[in-house]
Every structure is written in C-alpha cells, then in structure tokens.
Design a protein that fits this description.
There is one protein chain. The protein has 10 helices and 5 strands, in the order αααααβαβαβαβαβα. By secondary structure, it is of the alpha/beta class. It folds into 2 domains: 80 residues; 127 residues, Rossmann fold. Strands 2-1-3-4-5 form a 5-stranded parallel β-sheet, sandwiched between helices. It starts with a helix and ends with a helix. The relative contact order is 0.12.
Amino acid sequence: MKAFEARLAALKQRMEAGLGQRAQALKDAADRLDNGDEGARREIKSQSHKLRGIAGTYGHQELTDMAAHLEQRASLSPPPVVAELARELADRADEIGATATAGPLADSQAPAPPAPRTETALAGPDRAPIRILAVDDDPVTLKLLRLTLKQIGGFDATIVESARTALSELQRGEFDVVLSDAMMPDMNGLEFCRQARQQGGRAATMPIIILSAATADELGWHQALDQCTNWLRKPFRPSALVKKISQIVEEHESSRHS
C-alpha cells in the first residue's frame, strides 16, 4: 500500500498546482458576468462546484467553504456580488496553488501493484470483480478514481471523461454499477441518469451513484432521483468509497433475486 500512498500524495500535489486553471476559469466567467452575460452564472456555479469537490477531497476546508458559499449565491445574488465572490475564490485558489509543486506521478500504463482482495471489494474468491463504469470530466479526479477503483477496490473499472461517452459504453457493454459526477460540460448527472435509464435493458434498473460535493437538496434534484439512484458526497476516502460501492451492488443483487 506504500506505493499507492505515494501516488496519492503525488496526485494531491498535482491537484494543488493545477488549481490555477480553475481560478482562471472563474475570473473569465466573472468578467463575462460584469459585461452582462447572464449565462456566466452557470459557469461560475459549475466551476465553484468542481473546485469545492477537489478542495474537500484534499482537506482544504477554507477553500471548500468559500466554493460552497459561491455555489449557493451564484444563481440568486446580483451580478456584481457574484463576480466579486468568484474573484475572491479564484485568488485564494491561486494562493494555494502557488505553494504547490506538481510532483511526478507514475505512468498510468505502468503495472499496478496487486489489488487487495477484501470482503467489501469482492463477494468471494470465485466471483468476478464488480464491473463499474465511472464518468468525470476533471483530470485529477479521474486519476484518483483509477487508483481507488482499480487498485484499492479491485474492480473491473471502465473510466471515461464525458457523459456521452459513458452512454455509448452502456450500449456496448454490461456493468453492475455506474458512478457519475454531478456537473459535467455536456450534461449534468441528473440528465445523464435519465438518458441512461431510457436506453432500457440492464441500464434501466442498475444502480447509478452520483458523486458530488453538494447534496441533492442543494442542487434541487432530490425529488427527481429514482429509487435506483444513490448519492455520495465528496470528499471521500478511497477505502470508504470502495466499501459503499460494494454494499450498493450487493443490496441491488439481493433485491433482484428476492
């Protein structure tokens, strides 16, 4: 597990060093809002949500709280207030990013250490690994998911960068569970769930887990989620995420055969 911890530490450094990209996106959106582009509110809300999740995952509580506050205010406060909050968040993200140096991260194609076979990751020694499809548009989160799902969980994981690609994967293959980000450029997690269900077959009833820094109530999605959709909050510990996924799949399989 020492190799995994070293890669996780390097990933944390990369995340911190890459905060400047999120900060610049917030500043650009704030400038657009100042110039009368009301559509920039959505971009500010999306970027603050992303930043909130990443900061929370790696323990930057101040940044997490600032991002959560902006996410709540982005749709309702006057444009000058939203723009100012966005710039304040961007400045703080820049400060944190400036103190980090992106460390080397082992090539994702390099052989991974054997995944631990635990009762939570696998139902038994003779059972095939859980087949999971994961989708997120953030590069750092994608690396974290690869480490978590494949090395800690021992899952048969397919990990993609867009909701539309994930929908195509659902048409081509069979999965036991889907893990989806809440906010993606091509569609949000709720719309992705709806389109996945409409494909029919196994996708119509399989567990879908939305991973988000916000609650379903905060996004106004609570009433729209079906009984097969689960909600997990960021930040998450890798071992806790693996355990929860395994539990959800086991409960779903039990209900199917009862």
